[in-house]
Amino acid sequence: MLQPYRDVLTRPGALAFSGAGVLARLPMSMVGIGIVLMVSTIYGSYGLAGRVSAVYVIAQAICSPQLARLVDRHGQSRVMRPAVALAAVGLVGVVVAASQEAHEAWLYAAAVVTGAGIGSFGSLVRARWARVLGADPHRMHTAYSLESALDELVFIVGPVLATVLATSVAPSAGLVVPLVAMLVGGYWFLSLRSTEPPPAPVGSPRPKGSVLRRPGMVVLAIVFVAMGSIFGATDVATVAFAEESGSKGAAGVILAIFALGSLISGLLYGTRVWKRPLYLRFATGMVALAIGVCFFFLVQSLVALAAVMFVTGFAIAPTLINGNGLVQDLVPRERLTEGLTWVGTSLGVGVSIGSSVAGAQIDVNGSHAGFLVVVVSAGAAVVATLAALRTLRGDAGEHVHDSVEAGSPSATGGAAVAACEVAESVEPSRSVGTLDA
């Protein structure tokens, strides 16, 4: 099973940029929960914690597509070196403001600066795979499946590490590690110039308008907002549920188990060729994810919650992967970075909405009110998906089917992937269940 992965990692420079990318992506699984743990502990309010986390995610969601367009035109290192420095300054500001119990306005301001510069290293890594492997659909499939599995590894290690540090060392300690990882991993990655995709040629026309003008992209954006709300509300509700159960430190372990199920299925997905039309697999995954999260509301113990999350995790990546795969058929090749980043942005907006709403509900009615927000978000995602299924099929169905027959790669939110022929090569950041071949 591992031979396809060995094959792509032996390409010149591949192991280095993939490894650096893992370290640079660690903040994506630690900053959100780190903010929630720190602010809820110091200020005693899950509502405030959720709002600060939401502000961070919204800033990232707004700025990431703009950074992606700049990267396409000017190159990764030229754009992201100052951006990483800006994000680091913002994250230091969040830690300092909270440690001093400053007015919440300072927390919001620092969160905005952090989100504005942090960007999406997942997209940069996948852009390099596209450069190294070209348009080989089978190897692209393997490479993006690998990156999806590594994303899951990040989501396994990150929440646990953030929780242990915040509860055992100091409330702000959970944000120190992602700060170091962002600086070390980010600048290491950006120093690897041999695999960096070239910027757009000088004098090439600038793209006009937004890719969201396409109906299919609007549909995906709406669905991904609802999906993000599932994840954001789940994070906050899990922390609150663990605290109510007398073991706040277990929250990180449970969220890691959630990602572990996704990691396992992601590795399996990378070895398969999928033949069913992509839009149908996307809808199937969304329904499966919605059914799974409904059980979160019913659990009464940490062990039960961990078990349900593990099983539900198998549905996350297929849904994200297939949704991002649809983007490759909905936008022009030269605007893939922007298209995929918008999907990741929509997911981030949803995370901010979910964490904020769930935090407010938890403050009033306890952790199960947060899980109720998860269930409502899942229902909205299913309704939006099924109501617009004809749009997705009409925009991308026929071409996607051909791509899948050829050998479907995978993708993650916000990748600068080339080659429209590799229509199903995009694979998102969680994992993949064996939905149906």
UniProtKB/TrEMBL annotation:
<keyword id="KW-0472">Membrane</keyword>
<dbReference type="GO" id="GO:0022857">
    <property type="term" value="F:transmembrane transporter activity"/>
</dbReference>
<dbReference type="InterPro" id="IPR011701">
    <property type="entry name" value="MFS"/>
</dbReference>
<dbReference type="InterPro" id="IPR036259">
    <property type="entry name" value="MFS_trans_sf"/>
</dbReference>
<feature type="transmembrane region" description="Helical">
    <location>
        <begin position="211"/>
        <end position="231"/>
    </location>
</feature>
<feature type="transmembrane region" description="Helical">
    <location>
        <begin position="12"/>
        <end position="42"/>
    </location>
</feature>
<protein>
    <submittedName>
        <fullName>MFS transporter</fullName>
    </submittedName>
</protein>
<feature type="transmembrane region" description="Helical">
    <location>
        <begin position="339"/>
        <end position="362"/>
    </location>
</feature>
<feature type="transmembrane region" description="Helical">
    <location>
        <begin position="368"/>
        <end position="389"/>
    </location>
</feature>
<keyword id="KW-1133">Transmembrane helix</keyword>
<feature type="transmembrane region" description="Helical">
    <location>
        <begin position="304"/>
        <end position="327"/>
    </location>
</feature>
<feature type="transmembrane region" description="Helical">
    <location>
        <begin position="79"/>
        <end position="99"/>
    </location>
</feature>
<feature type="transmembrane region" description="Helical">
    <location>
        <begin position="172"/>
        <end position="190"/>
    </location>
</feature>
<keyword id="KW-0812">Transmembrane</keyword>
<dbReference type="Pfam" id="PF07690">
    <property type="entry name" value="MFS_1"/>
</dbReference>
<feature type="transmembrane region" description="Helical">
    <location>
        <begin position="105"/>
        <end position="127"/>
    </location>
</feature>
<feature type="transmembrane region" description="Helical">
    <location>
        <begin position="278"/>
        <end position="298"/>
    </location>
</feature>
<feature type="transmembrane region" description="Helical">
    <location>
        <begin position="251"/>
        <end position="271"/>
    </location>
</feature>
